[in-house]
Amino acid sequence: MRRYATSKFRIGLLAACIAAVVFVATSSSSWAQNQGGAAAPAAGNQAPAPQKQGLMSLILSHPDFVSFTIAILSITGLTLIIQGFIKIRRGALIPNASTNHIRDLINRQKFKKLIDFTKTDPSFVSRALNPALKRAPSFSSTLTLFAL
């Protein structure tokens, strides 16, 4: 259930992003070379046309610190974005088991148990609800809040 929070998953996701970038870079440079084609010159004294280079071959032929820093930060950013989309979803933020248990405790008016449950439950809904329950002036006002 907590598989997405492990470092192994993050490292694997980073490796997959790097592999995708390398694959795209090598395939685009070979595609550009194939598209350039070697046209036979019409006259014997004409120089052949220069071949088109792919973006990665251009960057790798003139390496500098800024290019590699931008590439590394781009891959890292993409990895964090993908990881964020995986972690932030309805099932992770508001699990059905937690919300059903919270609704049950509210319906039975077991507010002390509700405060204890929201203190120990790791879900987002419990972490957001716990401070509100602790700051409520009385449990009757809390009951009317959840009855809406």
List the helices and strands and how they pair.
Layout lengths: L6 H30 L18 H7 L3 H23 L2 H4 L2 H12 L3 H10 L3 H12 L3 H9 L1
What characteristics describe this protein?
mainly alpha; 8 helices; 2 domains; 148 residues; 72% helix
Tally of structural domains: 2
Beta-strand portion reads under 5%
Which structural class fits the helix and strand makeup?
mainly alpha
H/E element string? Answer: HHHHHHHH
Give the C-alpha Rg. 29 Å
The DSSP helix count reads 8
Helical percentage: over 70%
Main sheet characteristics: none
Gap from first CA to last CA:
32 Å
Low-confidence stretches: none
CA-based shape:
rod-shaped
* Quantity of strands, as a count: 0
- The overall average pLDDT, rounded, is 75
How would you sum up this structure, described in words?
With 148 residues, this protein is mainly α. It has two domains: 3-37 and 51-88, no CATH class; 93-147, no CATH class. The protein contains eight helices and no strands. It is rod-shaped and about 90 Å long. The model has no long low-confidence stretch (mean pLDDT 75).
